[in-house]
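Case study B.
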Amino acid sequence: MRKFALLLIIVGLLTACSPAAHLDASLNGIEISNARVLLPGGDAMSGMDTSLAAFLMIKNTAAMDDRLLGVSTDFGEASLHETKTEGNVMKMDAITGVDVPAGQMVELRSGSYHVMIMKNKNIKVNDSVTLVLEFEKAGRITVPAKVTDK
Amino acid sequence: MTMNRRHLVVILSLTAIIIALAFFQFSSPPKFIGAVIDPPKAMPGFSLQSALGPVSSTGFRGKLLVMYFGYTSCPDICPLTLANLRQAMDKLGGKATDVQVLFISVDWKRDTPEKLGSYAKAFRPDFIGVTGTQSQIDSVTRDYGIYYLLNLPDAKGYYSVDHTASVLVLNRKGELILSWPNGTSPDDMASDLRGLLRK
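Model:
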């Protein structure tokens, strides 16, 4: 009995210490986590006429497939893009949406789907900004995102 | 054999093993993570425009030259590669003065030398950003085996640029000696640069 109790405590501690995705927002079965805007050159890139990327994870816990249709922000012009590698050549295309099948997790990350942000309005590292995600079924989800340089 | 003599033999043996291991470590050729070009390939020179004036490839002789081709409107791969290069340079400490990172924009239509100057310096003050005319960019990309294509603009005028995402490293004589594929980690880059600086 004592051994069993000790095992439960160890399992509990391990679970508590394990890294978990940080949940930023959820609505109608769609969960958004680890939302961040990359400012890789740090504050020196703030307000620069260049393009930035935002990454995040989308989990669909609903019974129906869903689709991310678009993203908007109040700190720049946002649009959905996909980077592909062909050989060692990088290509990027605008896309009309990202499918998020029922019960699945889709990640917007480097070298794949991402939110492209142009004409950023003087955001700084560690700022908290807002992304508004428009889903076909779940609707509009407002997500806080941290500005980070890595 | 007395106890003291036994101790002496053990200490001498261990010392000999440590010296042999150290000799092996420093005398064996460094192992590289990037693709090594062997023998190093002599490369044509080039002259491009930076915010501070013309930049010639021959001006970097005596240093390792790390060349990355991209564009400043690239949201994903280009800035992350430059951020990785910054981390690799930071890891080199004082030895970074023997390495020059050169960001070459293939987007000759949109990127100006002034814009490239502030963009490259945002990552690290000693990074240099350059570009050129279409003919200069065509020439340097052809010579260095870099593919690029300016895509057609969308309704708002934005266009993406397809480009080779490898990072090239030239040795102190200006010969191509190493290339890293996209996604090479800062630790691996720093390790390779240390190995090349020892050569």
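DSSP finds one helix and eleven strands in chain A. The remaining cases will be described in the next quarterly update.
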